[in-house]
Amino acid sequence: MAGLDDVFGELFASIDAVVLFSPSGSYYEQFASVDDVDVIVVGTENAVGAETFVELPLEFEAITERIRFGLEGALEQGVIEDGDELACATSVFGDGIDTVSRVRADAETHTGIYDMFVKSRADSEVTKAVLELAIELGQKGQKGKPVGALFVVGDAGKVMNKSRPLSYNPFEKSHVHVGDPIVNVMLKEFSRLDGAFVISDAGKIVSAYRYLEPSAEGIDIPKGLGARHMSGAAITRDTNAISIVLSESDGLVRAFKAGELILEVDPEAY
Ligand SMILES: Nc1ncnc2c1ncn2[C@@H]1O[C@H](COP(=O)(O)OP(=O)(O)OP(=O)(O)O)[C@@H](O)[C@H]1O
Ligand SMILES: [Mn+2]
């Protein structure tokens, strides 16, 4: 009779690498004594001081997203290759690692979400701060009511050229940056008002209340979404910016790059 190892063992038979998602130090250490296996650590920070590390911008709640994003980053960094067989160990139910998924690295399913942070014009810290802000706004709303918001990040000069003011710009003479706690309060306050926020590569808030006027021809966004998403998507094809959009109507946060939807997250899941 076959033992469980014969059955479950197939999950990690002849794999090219083990990918540990946010392992504890002791869990990671155990792999040091395993022969002939490459170990890659993926997480929001390299808490275990791993030699091979891939950074996640957020702790994705959905395991499929977490693995897809982590592997996309690992492919980008060249620590794995297309077609590699990987044992991805992650936590689904508890604090510790409780799940192993066998996944084949597939360069074809490249979504661009990793590029959004690492290969964009804007600093990855800036993109991350804006994404976190949008998620936080989505969780709390404005005084309990759902709000929508549109942030256009990077390539600000070109974005300004493709847009016009809806009202006076409260950030006109200021030198404030995203990530700054005061600025987050201001951005949340202004998010009740119309138009887009324009943010520079380095995170400076260039303007609020911008009405975007990109060419929207041929832009394909999910059905049911309106002008905020259409303009947010289209501006990323006309410029090298990325857009992060919080929908007032369905509460989801979406990101667009090069005119394409590259990320869709439910703020309630974080
Ligand atoms: N071209 C644009 N540039 C900047 N902001 C815009 C633009 N078009 C619409 N908006 C902003 O988006 C808001 C919502 O518009 P609309 O309902 O058409 O968008 P939506 O994609 O359905 O977004 P939501 O899901 O939040 O309702 C508008 O009140 C306006 O503030
Ligand atoms: Mn709408």
Automatic annotation (TrEMBL):
Reactions it catalyzes: 2 ATP = 3',3'-c-di-AMP + 2 diphosphate
An example molecular function term from Gene Ontology annotations: diadenylate cyclase activity
Cofactor(s), by name: Mn(2+)
Pfam families referenced in this protein's UniProt entry, alphabetically: DAC, DACZ_N
Domain DAC: 110-267
Record-linked SUPFAM superfamilies: YojJ-like
E.C. code: 2.7.7.85
Alphabetized InterPro entries for the sequence: DAC_DacZ, DacZ_N, Diadenylate_Cyclase_DacZ, DisA, DNA_integrity_DisA_N_sf, DNA_integrity_scan_DisA_N
Keyword tags: ATP-binding, Manganese, Nucleotide-binding, Nucleotidyltransferase, Transferase
Family: Belongs to the adenylate cyclase family. DacZ subfamily.
HAMAP family attached to this UniProt entry: DacZ (MF_00840)
Function, as annotated: Diadenylate cyclase that catalyzes the condensation of 2 ATP molecules into cyclic di-AMP (c-di-AMP). c-di-AMP is a second messenger for intracellular signal transduction involved in the control of important regulatory processes such as osmoregulation.
Protein name per the record: Diadenylate cyclase
